[in-house]
Design brief:
61 residues; mainly alpha; globular; protein kinase activity; Sig_transdc_His_kin_Hpt_dom; phosphoprotein
């Protein structure tokens, strides 16, 4: 999971999806924390999925 989030963070930043990259950075940081709270990670993943949905809508127009 960490690798996928890291790659998505870099790729989204490269193509200019700054908010998506920021959310991935938050998730990456939470995953790396040894005292991670999985409920906060789950909330961040929900934010990630919502942002992807927004981007899909914007790119379909």
């Amino acid at each position: 999971m960490r690798t996928i989030i890291h790659e998505l963070k870099g790729s989204s930043g490269t193509v200019g999806f700054r908010n998506l990259s920021r959310i991935c950075a938050e998730i990456e940081e939470k995953i790396s924390d040894n005292n991670n709270d999985w409920s906060t990670i789950e909330n961040s993943i929900e934010n990630l999925l919502n942002e992807i949905e927004v981007l899909e809508i914007l790119n379909s127009k």
